């Protein structure tokens, strides 16, 4: 496998590691963006008002049980007639990844907001803050550690599952795994798996650093 | 006292840990030894597309009807995966396509007619593996386009693609990237360089959907696929014989060959026709199970 990694032809070009990592990050980034767009507001709303807890718990669990590979093939066949371009493969891949990432983001945000110390919320209300100000000035900052933990688990799942985009002809690191299997080239397959793992760890580390920088020291007791 | 017990427990845990690492050091990519204890059962394997799975089911049922113990391992993968499995004894019997198997075993094979392919394949098979009588039934690889594409560029043969290939996207299974009956052969023999290649599935729903919906303009489909007629697709004629004759042939581990096995599978091969395959593939596409379709075919030919 070291030989596979040390072969320069495996790194450059349209099928090279660099190109595949970039594609992988693009799919993951776009999916994470949309998942946040959906998951964060719902989580904040439910956490703040306490309405619909049962609904989102049920929804989150139902979404988690969707089989990604089956769903992506189904969506490709459904979307096939809609787009003539590569969008017929990109849109289904992104949808599958978004569906995968929404539950952890949504539950993390909801749990974070719901777990904020009621005394802090009461104090803010006593100071005359409006509900939206309470949400954004008190509840959201206090909920950040749990929101970040939801975000981290969503990101890990997206990065490891973005490999299935290759199953429907797109790029990304899944290309190495799926082509390696079809061509009986286990070194290529193993290289793909190692790269996915390394990428997931790196991105997780980056989010970890981001959360250290943004979470108030008063919450983490790192004063 | 408690401290020393703790220390002992710690040392034990460390030993256990180091033992697991030594275990983990055995090369996971090396060939796993075939752990077979039951020598009499014939394990029938198949590739990862429905027709191959159906044929494997037919073989297994036909042998079982003659009182031979069988087991099936369907949906293994591409030839690059299941052939090594046959050689290392993880499986014993495969429904194979003569031409594709030949060029897998001998990259420079030139045989094209069914007889030549059968002869060349017999010679090329590795020690320990033999083939039985090929069936007249064929399922060849082909390059398919939609009727609209064929009319637009006046395509009849694969060679007609030459002036327009650079504008077209080709779709096929991932193994086509490195196979002679794939991108390599299309380039060497026909001089075709497509705009790009999309890795889809083995003539399955993804390939069909991509071709019909114009995400790819040419794709690898199989001649026994009923979807070709249903969707008004055109298989381009292979005038330079890139894809050799693909008669269906049982490939079997020599140790498992016996008179009964040979007679049973030869009877299956003799009864099987290309039309049967098209009809049965149509039924599989309509979600009939392998068992039912295989069982009915065997009953019809009194092989059960």
List the helices and strands and how they pair.
The complex is a heterodimer of chains A (223) and B (304).
Chain A lengths: L1 H5 L10 H33 L3 H12 L3 H12 L7 H28 L3 H9 L4 H31 L12 H9 L3 H29 L2 H4 L3
Helix pairs in contact in A: 2-5, 2-7, 3-5, 4-5, 5-7, 6-7, 7-9, 8-9
Chain B lengths: L1 H23 L17 E6 L2 H16 L4 E8 L1 H9 L5 E5 H8 L8 H11 L4 E3 L9 E6 H7 L15 E4 L7 H11 L5 E4 L5 H8 L5 E5 L4 H4 L2 E3 L12 E6 L5 H13 L2 H12 L4 H11 L4
Parallel strand pairs in B: 1-2, 6-7, 6-8
Antiparallel strand pairs in B: 3-10, 4-10, 5-8, 5-9
Helix pairs in contact in B: 2-10, 2-12, 4-5, 11-12
Concise summary:
The complex is a heterodimer of chains A (223) and B (304). Chain A is mainly α and 223 residues long. Chain A is built from ten helices and no strands.
Descriptive overview:
The complex is a heterodimer of chains A (223) and B (304). With 223 residues, chain A is mainly alpha-helical. Chain A has one domain (2-220): MetI-like fold (Orthogonal Bundle). Helix content of chain A is 77%, strand content 0%. Chain A contains ten helices and no strands. Chain A has helices at residues 2-6, 17-49, 53-64, 68-79, 87-114, 118-126, 131-161, 174-182, 186-214, 217-220. The longest helix of chain A has 33 residues, at 17-49. The N and C termini of chain A lie far apart (46 Å). In chain A, 39% of the residues are buried. Chain B starts with a helix and ends with a helix. In chain B, the strands form three sheets. Chain B has a five-stranded mixed β-sheet, with helices on both faces. Chain B has a three-stranded antiparallel β-sheet with strand order 3-10-4. In chain B, strands 1-2 form a two-stranded parallel ribbon. Chain B folds into two domains: 42-138 and 245-300, 3-Layer(aba) Sandwich (D-Maltodextrin-Binding Protein, domain 2), CATH 3.40.190; 141-235, 3-Layer(aba) Sandwich (D-Maltodextrin-Binding Protein, domain 2), CATH 3.40.190. In chain B, helix 7 links the parallel strand 6 and strand 7. Chain B is α/β, with parallel strands linked by helices and 304 residues long. The model of chain B is unreliable at 11-26 (pLDDT under 50). Chain B has helices at residues 2-24, 50-65, 79-87, 98-105, 114-124, 147-153, 180-190, 205-212, 227-230, 259-271, 274-285, 290-300; strands at residues 42-47, 70-77, 93-97, 129-131, 141-146, 169-172, 196-199, 218-222, 233-235, 248-253. Classes of the chains: A mainly alpha (223), B alpha/beta (304). The A-B interface holds A 1, 73, 76-77, 80-81, 83-86, 88-89, 166, 168-169, 175, 178-179, 181-184, 186-187, 190 and B 28-29, 77-78, 80-81, 84, 171, 173-175, 177-178, 198-200, 205-206, 209-210, 212-215.
């Amino acid at each position: 496998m070291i030989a596979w990694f040390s072969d320069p032809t495996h790194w450059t070009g349209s099928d090279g590691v660099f190109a595949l990592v970039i594609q992988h990050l693009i799919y993951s980034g776009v999916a994470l963006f949309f998942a946040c767009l959906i998951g964060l507001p719902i989580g904040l709303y439910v956490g703040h008002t306490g309405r619909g807890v049962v609904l989102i718990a049920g929804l989150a669990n139902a979404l988690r049980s969707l089989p990604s590979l089956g769903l992506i093939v189904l969506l490709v066949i459904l979307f096939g007639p809609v787009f003539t371009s590569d969008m017929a493969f990109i849109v289904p891949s992104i949808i599958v990844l978004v569906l995968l990432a929404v539950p952890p983001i949504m539950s993390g945000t909801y749990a974070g907001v719901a777990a904020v110390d009621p005394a802090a919320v009461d104090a803010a209300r006593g100071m005359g803050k409006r509900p939206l100000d309470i949400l954004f000035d008190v509840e959201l900052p206090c909920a950040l550690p749990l929101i970040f933990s939801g975000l981290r688990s969503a990101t890990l799942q997206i990065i490891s599952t973005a490999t299935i985009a290759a199953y429907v002809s797109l790029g990304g690191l899944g290309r190495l795994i799926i082509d390696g299997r079809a061509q009986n080239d286990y070194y290529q397959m193993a290289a793909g798996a190692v790269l996915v793992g390394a990428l997931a760890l790196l991105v997780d580390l980056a989010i970890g650093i981001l959360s250290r920088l943004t979470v108030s020291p008063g919450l983490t007791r790192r004063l | 006292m408690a401290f020393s017990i703790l220390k002992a427990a710690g040392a034990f845990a460390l030993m256990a840990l180091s033992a697991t690492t030594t275990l983990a050091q055995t090369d996971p990519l090396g060939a796993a030894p075939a752990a077979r204890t039951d020598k009499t059962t014939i394990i029938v394997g198949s590739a990862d597309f429905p027709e191959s799975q159906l044929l494997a089911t037919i073989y297994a049922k036909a042998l079982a009807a003659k009182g031979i113990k069988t087991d099936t391992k369907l949906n293994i993968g591409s030839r690059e995966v299941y052939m090594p499995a046959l050689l290392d004894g993880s499986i014993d019997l495969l429904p194979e396509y003569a031409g594709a198997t030949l060029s897998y075993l001998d990259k420079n094979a030139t045989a094209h007619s069914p007889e030549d392919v059968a002869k060349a394949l017999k010679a090329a098979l590795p020690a320990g593996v033999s083939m039985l009588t090929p069936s007249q039934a064929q399922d060849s690889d082909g390059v398919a386009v939609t009727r609209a594409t064929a009319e637009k560029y006046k395509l009849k043969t694969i060679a007609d693609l030459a002036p327009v290939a650079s504008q077209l996207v080709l779709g096929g299974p991932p193994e086509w990237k490195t196979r002679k009956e794939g991108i390599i052969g299309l380039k060497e023999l026909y001089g075709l360089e497509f705009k790009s290649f999309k890795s889809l599935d083995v003539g399955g729903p993804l390939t069909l959907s991509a071709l019909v919906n114009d995400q790819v303009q040419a794709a690898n489909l199989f001649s026994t696929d009923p979807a070709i007629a249903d969707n008004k697709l055109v298989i381009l004629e292979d005038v330079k014989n890139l894809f050799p004759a693909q008669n269906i042939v049982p490939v079997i581990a020599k140790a498992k060959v016996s008179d009964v096995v040979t007679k049973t599978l030869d009877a299956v091969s003799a009864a099987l026709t290309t039309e049967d395959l098209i009809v049965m593939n149509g039924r599989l596409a309509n979600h009939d199970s392998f068992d039912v379709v295989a069982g009915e075919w065997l009953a019809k030919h009194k092989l059960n």
